[in-house]
Amino acid sequence: MNMPGSGAATRDEWMTVAAARMLRDRCVCFVGIGLPSAACNLARLTHAPDIVLIYESGTIGTRPDVLPLSIGDGELAETAAFVVPLPEVFAHYLQGGRVDVGFLGAAQVDRFGNINSTVIGSYASPATRLPGAGGAPEIAAHAKQTFVMLKASRRSFVEHLDFRTTARFGAGGPRAVITDFGVLAPHPDTHELQLAALFADATIDEARAVVGWPLAAVDMVARAPSPTAHELDTLRALHARTREAHAQPVALPVS
Amino acid sequence: MPFLSLHDAIATHVADGASVALEGFTHLIPFAAAHELIRQRRRELHLIRMTPDLVYDQLIGMGCARKLTFSWGGNPGVGSLHRLRDAVEHAWPRSLELDEHSHAGMAAAFCAGAARLPFGTLRGYIDNDLDKVNPRVRRVDCPFTGERLAAVAAINPGVTILHAQRADRAGNVALRGIVGAQREAAMAAATLIVTVEEIVDALPPAMNAIVLPHWIVTAVVHCPGGAYPSYAHGFYARDNAFYQGWDAIARDRATFEAWMQRHVLDTHDHAGFLASLEQKAA
Known about the structure:
The structure holds two protein chains of two kinds.
Chain A: H1 11-21, E1 28-31, H2 35-45, E2 52-54, E3 59-60, H3 74-78, E4 82-83, H4 86-95, E5 101-105, E6 108-109, E7 115-116, E8 119-121, E9 126-129, H5 136-142, E10 145-149, E11 176-178, E12 182-186, E13 193-198, H6 204-210, E14 217-223, H7 229-247
Parallel strand pairs in A: 1-2, 1-5, 5-10, 10-11, 13-14
Antiparallel strand pairs in A: 3-4, 6-7, 8-9, 11-12, 12-13
Chain B: H1 6-13, E1 19-22, H2 31-39, E2 45-48, H3 53-61, E3 65-70, E4 74-75, E5 79-80, H4 82-90, E6 97-100, H5 103-114, E7 119-122, H6 130-133, E8 137-141, E9 148-153, E10 159-168, E11 173-175, H7 182-188, E12 191-200, E13 210-212, E14 219-222, H8 240-251, H9 253-265, H10 270-281
Helix pairs in contact in B: 2-3, 3-4, 5-7, 8-9
């Protein structure tokens, strides 16, 4: 287990830090659970203290001390500026155009940034039934820009999706896809995702080995700047607080 | 508006084959009512819920459901709902028909149902495959601008079951915290059953709070702890360790069935369920 201040950054930490750095202070950000939630809160605890985080549970302007396990943990409501009913989050805030950034996770992404989070195999008799759409299709449609985070494998970066849950939107789909080896960004004309930056010791060959289409790279693939000590300490302390909080036994509500 | 025991509320108001929405978005999930449906061996239910969560994993795994209307079916922050997956992937213990939405679409369908409109509209389901597999998602042209919008058929559950913090003696119900689409699911239903943490002489003044007035509430059930292992804000916290532990229980059919037997079928009521977990922890 990594303690604050010890050890080189893992690939997970590179991902989270790179994603956090894409968020501007004071932007209004609709947060997906899991990897995006860690990245958005890291941004809030470092360079973006006045970022407005919205979770689909209706918690707006939330400032959790520990990462929520679900999108509806009590921590999110207690630390929110205010809480609204769920239909209002989607209709008034998201569809109403009042969200700057949507930050999504995904099971599968294709070369243009379309997302599958529904099934592997056919819909009628799937090999793997995934959780489904949740908020993603409309977040991608209505947030002014979208970022996607997912771990890289031959099953996650594919030439053809088995099911299109969420269509890419805006000028060329997601602004960036952040994954284990680095960052993909859309080509300005074709909108095809191409390699834009690499983490640490990652190589173009490693990236091409796990991406299921012939991965193009920009002319000068950037070496992503290393996470700073402050970013790593903040992220590790956040994860340590979170582990401790989630391991706390909850008293059964018996009288 | 009668006060009933949970046994009598379910026995009286939920028949085999009913369409039932047990709503509550992570918070205030009516677990006690779901367990009572399982104890009374309800079958052929059409289950409706934005996030099926562990509560429907249990109902589906116990063979209570014929059909599921939903918009996101995972164990939040943990992974799969293994019983839901087993039903869809292998038809175990039986096949499950899906009526699948996005959150925004399902919220619009509840809002339409609450207002007794035939459908809800949104800018949604754009250029994806969901409308290809769900005939309840269609398109409509705006009569004013001509814009093409998504139309979702209204959701009107036969019975909606909620859990809330408190009711007063007249049967007015108040809930607070994360309230999801509970108000809309309540207003959309033909019958509304609410389990509550406590019954008080008068609800605390709560201008703009979510109040479900006595004349839309069919029955109130006093059921302390009725949302556990989800939570009731101001009463008890979400048991995240339980949600994490559920993954291993639900992954295996026999382990799941043994757990349900011990903690639900072999217990008389929700107090018995909680006591069985307390014994295990001791």
